From TrEMBL:
One of its GO terms (molecular function) is hydrolase activity, acting on carbon-nitrogen (but not peptide) bonds, in linear amides. The record marks 187-188 as: Cleavage. GO terms for cellular component: cytoplasm. PANTHER family: L-ASPARAGINASE, N(4)-(BETA-N-ACETYLGLUCOSAMINYL)-L-ASPARAGINASE. The active site is at 188 (nucleophile). This is Glycosylasparaginase.
């Protein structure tokens, strides 16, 4: 041990031995505030989070499994014909092909994801199958599709939904690749939940960025970017421009900040601050985060105004506007 470290160690021992009053006072001031959270609790991104939370809550009551709940919840959004950012009805890539990304994770570290997958109606369930039936975490593209066939997932015909076709035809007029800050353009569902015993799980599913390059994968199927869950600490999920979220390992960052003592709200705000610092053209980038800690306390924050989320607790399921780094 170096002389300096020895000295520091000795002086700490000395202070405890000779200043018991000070040590006792320190111990008192370090007591953490009583958590104000609530369990069970489910959070999900955007206003489609309301029906998704309802389905998740019903599933939690039915099976008692928070994993079942977060899968069932986002399956509702995967079939929502009004949603142009999730499921096979989502807006396609530049070539007119819809490709999907999804991830699912539980607080014990189990996780599964699929990316750049075609023709599968419920990529979240395929991600769960990757988690439960393979030794892997992530399957992509043709491999994911082959796995879907092997697991008995029906493959859908590759055809844009009428709404997506209209939008794609409009886009083709200029074919300009420019992600825009727009609720219509950022509609991914990320869901995180905690059961009454403190078990956590999360899910995230998307058709990704509209008119992306063929093969582009966003944050949603990247564990640590679009989703991260740890029973010892809490969970986080993300929505918005995936590249900006991947760049800061957004969801993992939030969970690690909570591990170091930040509240979920403080952790979300710090992640947004980091994202703002690390991304150029921030005025063109929207991203939002949700977090829960193991006490059932919550946080939400976005780069720009406009992000909202649904929060379900025993007394009800409500839509809440998130605060943001840039003000209206
Ligand atoms: C992505 N994060 O693929 C997704 C897009 C998104 O609401 O959140 N849309 O980059």
């Amino acid at each position: 041990m170096s002389q300096r470290r020895k000295f520091i160690k000795q002086s700490l021992v000395g202070s405890v031995l000779f200043l018991p009053g000070v040590a006792a006072a320190c111990a008192q001031t370090q007591t953490t505030p009583t958590p104000t959270g609530e369990k069970p609790l489910i959070l999900s991104t955007w206003n489609h989070g309301i029906p998704a939370n309802d389905a998740a809550w019903a599933k939690l009551n039915e099976t008692g499994s928070i994993l079942d709940a977060v899968e069932a919840g986002v399956r509702v959004t995967e079939l929502d014909l009004e949603n142009l950012s999730v499921g096979l009805q989502g807006l396609p890539d530049r070539e007119g092909i819809t490709t999907l990304d999804a991830s699912i994770m539980t607080g014990d570290g189990a996780c599964g994801t699929v990316a750049f997958v075609r023709q599968v109606k419920h990529p979240i369930s395929l991600a769960r199958a990757v988690m439960e039936k393979t030794p892997h975490v992530m399957l992509v593209g043709e491999g994911a599709r082959q796995f879907a066939i092997a697991e008995g997932f029906p493959l859908e015909e590759e055809k844009l939904s009428p709404k997506a076709q209209v939008e794609y035809d409009k886009w083709k007029v200029t074919s300009q690749y420019k992600p825009i800050i727009n609720i219509e353009n950022h509609d991914t569902i990320g869901m995180i939940g905690i059961d009454a015993n403190g078990k956590l799980a999360g899910s995230c599913t998307t058709s990704g960025l509209a008119y992306k390059m063929h093969g582009r994968v966003g944050d949603s199927p990247i564990i640590g970017a679009g989703l991260y869950v740890d029973d010892e600490v809490g969970a986080a999920t993300a929505t918005g421009l995936g590249e900006s979220i991947i760049r800061i390992c957004g969801s993992f960052l939030i969970v690690e900040l909570m591990r170091q003592g930040r509240t979920p709200q403080e952790a979300c705000e710090e992640a947004v601050k980091r994202l703002v610092a690390k991304n150029k053209n921030i005025k063109d980038i929207q991203a939002g985060f949700l977090a829960i800690n193991k006490y059932g306390e919550t946080g939400a924050f976005a780069v720009h105004p406009g992000f909202n989320f649904a929060k379900a607790i025993a007394s009800g399921n409500t839509l809440i506007d998130s605060n943001s780094h840039f003000k209206p």
